[in-house]
From TrEMBL:
GO molecular function, one term: peptidase activity
This protein's UniProt keywords: Autocatalytic cleavage, Hydrolase, Protease
Name of the molecule in the record: Isoaspartyl peptidase
Keyword match Protease: yes
Lineage of the species this protein comes from: Bacteria, Pseudomonadati, Bacteroidota, Cytophagia, Cytophagales
Active site as annotated: 174 (nucleophile)
Binding site for substrate: 202-205, 225-228
Highest rank taxon of the organism: Bacteria
PANTHER family, per database record: L-ASPARAGINASE (PTHR10188), N(4)-(BETA-N-ACETYLGLUCOSAMINYL)-L-ASPARAGINASE (PTHR10188:SF6)
Pfam families, A to Z: Asparaginase_2
Annotated site (Cleavage): 173-174
One of the GO biological process terms: proteolysis
């Protein structure tokens, strides 16, 4: 039987044990486990990698613990401006959205676009109109409002700063998933709320195919989390696949080259999760920690936070 595997992340950054209470740590582990179990159930029933990564990411979007969906941070205008992308390795189909505010699960909209041959990337009002016509779940702004995110935004605004998900902890709360299914197909998905107090319609790497998300059956599936501007400039996700394709590097070596080499030289902080066509997986990050987990036909379920 072809083996299958799914790996997820819930953000990277300066995540230190001293900054997390036991209660918070347990909550993150439980949220990661729930996302993994949903993705694993799809793969175990011979579902596709696309469905598995969608289920896992949607689960994390529904949790206020992560900076995506319900837990998305606020822009300078006090809005939730979310972005997401998804890609399948079999035929390089992809779907992406950015600048959306009232769609409950951005990853579902990205997946709908993936299956539409007319589009790859939609933004703002047009993307929301597209979602409405396809009857995707729409919610009011109140759905996304949490006391924690509002306090973050007000503090950042009063200081005139654009900050990461958690200013004190320097955590990038983007969520993502990568999977290999029993048909031998790869897929990757990423979703985020961006930076707190962001201005001018700023978009990061999470919705950009090749920077924050990439999948190709010949090489690997990648989902990134970090300071988006650096991941955009370095075209991180595609770069890993290129090193495997053109230079013959292993998944581990390609990830290390990009995350610990190229990004560090650029002073870009963050990380990525990856699986390759053989079912190998990799967690690679140059930050203090990354919320992450993995499970598969030959891999016992595990969730991790610190180095």
């Amino acid at each position: 039987m072809q083996k299958y595997i799914i790996a997820i992340h819930g953000g990277a950054g300066t995540i230190l044990k001293k900054h997390l209470s036991l209660e918070q740590e347990t909550a993150y582990h439980e949220a990661l486990r729930e996302a993994l179990e949903l993705g694993h159930e799809v793969l175990n029933k011979k579902g596709t990698a696309i469905e598995a990564v969608t289920q896992a990411v949607e689960s994390m979007e529904d949790s206020p613990l992560f900076n995506a969906g319900k837990g998305a941070v606020y822009s300078n205008e006090g809005k939730n401006e979310m972005e997401a992308s998804i890609m399948e390795g079999k035929n390089l189909n992809a779907g992406a959205v950015a600048g959306i505010s009232n769609i409950k699960n951005p990853i579902q909209l990205a997946k709908t676009i993936l299956h539409d041959p007319e589009f790859v990337y939609l933004i703002g009002h047009g993307a929301e109109e597209y979602a409405e016509k396809r009857k995707l779940d729409k919610v009011s702004s109140e759905y996304f409002r949490t006391k924690f995110r509002e306090e973050q935004w007000l503090a950042a605004k009063s200081e005139g700063k654009v900050i990461l998900d958690h200013d004190a902890d320097k955590k990038f709360g983007t969520v993502g998933a990568v999977a290999l299914d029993s048909f031998g197909d790869l897929a990757a998905a990423t979703s985020t709320g961006g930076l707190t107090n962001k201005k001018y319609g700023r978009i990061g790497d999470s919705s950009v195919i090749g920077s924050g998300t990439y999948a190709n059956n010949n090489t690997c599936a990648i989902s990134c989390t970090g300071y988006g501007e650096y991941f955009l400039r370095a075209v991180v996700a595609y770069d890993v696949a290129c090193l495997m394709d053109y230079k013959g590097l292993s998944l581990a070596d390609a990830c290390h080259e990009v995350v610990m080499g190229k990004l560090v030289k650029m002073r870009g902080e963050g990380g990525l999760i990856a699986v390759d066509a053989k079912g190998n997986y990799q967690f690679s990050f140059n930050s203090e920690g990354m919320y992450r987990g993995v499970v598969g036909s030959e891999v016992k379920l595990g969730t991790y936070i610190f180095k």
